[in-house]
Amino acid sequence: MVTTQTAHRYKGKRNRLDKPELLAPAGNLEKLKFAVHYGADAVYIGGQKYGLRSGADNFSFAEMKEGVEFAKQYGAKVFVATNIYAHNEDVSGLEDYLRELENAGIAAIIAADPIIIETAQRVAPKLEVHLSTQQSTMNWQAVQFWKEEGLPRVVLAREASLEEIEQIKAHVDVEIEAFIHGAMCSSFSGRCVLSNHFTDRDSNRGGCCQSCRWKYDIYEDDIQMVGMEADQFTMGSKDLCMLEHIPDLIDVGVDSFKIEGRMKSLHYVATVVNAYRQAIDSYMADPENYELKQVWQDDIQKAANRPLNTGFFYDTPGAEDHIYEPEDKAAPYDFAGVVVSYDEASGTAVIQQRNHFKPGQEVEFFGPNGTFFKQTVEAIADTDGNVLDAARHPLQHVVIRTESPVKPMDMMRKRVR
Amino acid sequence: MATKPELLIDAASLADMERLIEAGADAFVVGEARYGMRLPGEFDIGAMAAAVKLAHANRVSVYAAVNNVMDNATVDTLPNYIGALADAGVDAVVFGDPAVLMAARASAPAMKLHWNAEMTSTNYATANYWGRRGASRVVLARELNLEQIIGVKENTELAVQVQVHGMTNIYHSKRPLVHNYFEHQNKDGALENVPVHGKREDGLYLIESERPDERFPIYEDANGTHIMSSDDLCMIENLHELMEVNIDSFRIEGLLKSIAYNEAVVRAYRSAIDAYCSDPLGYAFNEDWLESIVQLQNPARELSYGFFYKEQVY
Fold first, then answer.
1. How far, in Å, are A204, A339, B272, B276 from residue B153 at the CA level?
2. Domain limits, chain A
3. What region does B41 belong to: left with phi over 0, alpha with psi -120 to 50, or beta?
4. CATH of A333-415, one of 3.40.50.2300, 2.40.30.10, 3.40.190.150, 3.30.70.20
5. DSSP three-state, residue B228
6. Alpha carbon of B201 to those of A87, A411, B254: distances in Å?
7. Do B208 and A188 touch (CB under 8 A)?
8. The domain containing residue B276 runs over which residues?
């Protein structure tokens, strides 16, 4: 694992001069709005069918339209994941669904199954089709195949290294999207049916129950190979984080930087997008003098669900890239509230409560482009001016004084330990 | 007399091939680990030519496994490799990665192609998509049920291959997970060298605490880490249900089994196929066929119907 920041210029070369796309997950309409507001150039969402997150909120067509309208104000695009491997019974209905996506103004679908790709090209030609990582594409010849099939973009397998990505870019003129942050399948994507075997849930149609993160005992000839007190075997991987290596990713020519996490919280999405937005903009503005800022890394840690690593980008993951010990799961911060409005005259803000907070607690406010300050919560009142001992109720609007001006959609987090 | 479905198996060596031909196999899938996935033996181009010679002398087919997830380095060698397979006389190339299709178009345009994307070959429309791009056979995912298999067969011109016996792969990672785990156990440096464990012959398996009776084989090779099913698929009792709908090829997975076991399995299925095809209406399942398999079956591994009669949710 590469832990120190690598030198600027991947092997002394620079393969792209324009800014890459920052692509963020949006599990629902609110997350979409925040992802875009915090700097995503594009977001990907799931609809009611054909997506691999059957447990997520997922968008209705009306919500998609609203999301597309909102994103348009920022010049951002909305993609829809239609990334299942279809079964016979999924084939009918596909045409209508894809036409609805096109009508909703969706810019692209992310698809793995060729029948979804081909159907979209036939019935909804305004939809771009991006090849999903579920196809586990990691060579230039396969990328060339998909380009010839009319796809403008390929999302590579998470097993592709920076060197392999550079080779692919050198062979084929097509957009390359790569996951840069978030949880990863430890298997080749699509090549895992643990859920099917353990729980009769079809992993390649969204039923994944994350059996790779369960714990197992490993045996040889009826003998357990490792003592009872030792850590058990697991396939579970640390999460990907390429924040330290933005220059390398830009220099090899990755066109779209993808953040994983349609099931993740609003706080997670805003925080991670914010950090990558600043890193990308900072590098593009002045590559020669680019410096990785500690505050971006600190922010990522405030939202991290698991320990982080660099996946396959620099080398094959080793023992240190997997999670054998009990997970020290929660980040030391909790999402506490969202700024609804700010009154300059009184220096007070209306906050929509997202988690319990009370006077005396230390909180942090942050917004797009790295605006940030800490303060202690003083008195809390409801919107009628009644003093409260705490902000107890989810989504309740409360009024507090803020030490600096804040804006709507700024966020407030509290330290929990 | 009904058209006979093909009985297809892998083989670890030419010697094993001879025994399995004698037992009644119609076709073999063999290859080398650089290009093919989860093969019980290495057949380089020389061995492949010898396999074809042996097989064709017995009116048996040989399919080359070229179904790995390919990387750039391997892709650069594919045109030569597929050209050499054509020269060796193989009857078809089994592929999952479209790079293989591209290479075959360029260097062996007459080569038959079998599309096998393992767990992601799941519907007739996608089978037909690959058919329009040159595939003549679809190898279906083992996670489909009988109704879905029939649905594919009814809606495609491609030959349909279905696994009827043996274990199935349920997880494939590029990561060396077994090696990593033992390295983690040795993180304090207690051992001088991390034990080299995890090769196929080491016989390792996983147990999950809520399923103490299920043993999931796990091994590592050049293509990563493979976890296999805890049960062995066995459709011999109901093979007529697949023959009635004219499934074209029945695959036996011989991986991690002895040659004696595979021989017995081939004999049993051979008997069932021959009996059915000579008199479909008068066909009756013979308990002895199953019994000949059960006698050699590892008692720790259940014989099951796999997903043939299951409904899955998502």
1. 21, 58, 21, 19
2. 21-190+236-323, 333-415
3. beta
4. 2.40.30.10
5. strand
6. 36, 56, 14
7. no
8. 6-168+230-304
Tens of each residue's pLDDT in chain B, 314 residues: 568 999 999 999 999 999 999 999 999 999 999 999 999 999 999 999 999 999 999 999 999 999 999 999 999 999 999 999 999 999 999 999 999 999 999 999 999 999 999 999 999 999 999 999 999 999 999 999 999 999 999 999 999 999 999 999 999 999 999 999 988 988 777 666 666 678 998 899 999 989 999 999 999 999 999 999 999 999 999 999 999 999 999 999 999 999 999 999 999 999 999 999 999 999 999 999 999 999 999 999 999 999 999 988 88
B295 and chain A: CB distance < 8 Å anywhere?
Answer: no
Q: How many domains does chain B have?
A: 2
Tokens coding A116 = 């979804």
Answer whether A207 sits within 8 Å of B119, measured CB to CB: no
DSSP A214: S
Please report residues of A whose CB lies closer than 8 A to that of B95: none
Please say whether the dihedral angle defined by the alpha carbons of residues A68, A69, A71 and A74, taken in this order, is positive or negative: positive
The answer to whether domain A21-190+236-323 has CATH 3.20.20.70 is: yes
Identity of the amino acid at A225: M
CB contact under 8 A, A113 and B207: no
